[in-house]
Amino acid sequence: LNNKNKFIYLIIMEKLGTKYGGWYVPEVMDLDKDSIIYSAGVGEDISFDLLLSDKYKSHIYLIDPTKRALKHYESIYEGYIGNDWDFSGQDIQKDYWGIISELSPNLKKMYYVKKGLWKGRDIMKFYKQENEKYVSQSLMGNMFGKEYDKVEVLSVKDLMKEKENTRIDLLKMDIEGAEVEVLNKMLDDEIYPKYLCIEFDLALKGKDTENGTKKILERLMRSGYRMLKNDHLNITFMYEK
User: Fold this and answer.
1) How wide is the angle at C-alpha 143 spanned by C-alphas 89 and 188, nearest 5°?
2) pLDDT digits over 7-31, tens only?
């Protein structure tokens, strides 16, 4: 007990996924075959999602409008279904294959959403990086280069309604600077996933000119979230209200 007569308990954390694309999460999570996971920011590394599927058999929605991300997901699907592994032209991490090759994910419960998360429904510019080697793109105009695609975006609430999900058990976001807008709208809509895994790219890349990262972190704590791990602004939270 602490001095406020509240229990303090230790949560053992583990890293699921590659060195680049993995996340620290509790070794034992309140997830099962009926859980709903939203994973925004697919890129060319879904080791985290595949490990979650292998361990918990949950429903996993992979959310990313990037063309290369969809191609990577299709490569993964063909690999597991037909044993036809082809990562040619993709920027694959050195430890990726060793992590995913022996897994048994439930691909029937992994669903690809070719849209971006934002604070509402819209069609927006999706900016590319100047170095074509890198897969990530951003809805934020100050993050990367000037070239862009046009993509469909929607809020967390919009996507839940579209997919007829009444809750989210885990929300992972690596969305290159749009995280502050998405999280603020999610809290406005009174949506509280049990677990959050968020990369705070605005702060990480020195683009947070309005101090939005600090403000949303404070708001998350006021709303009932406990910070479990801060791995260089890749932060894992758990909702405790």
Assistant:
1) 110
2) 667 899 999 999 999 999 999 999 9
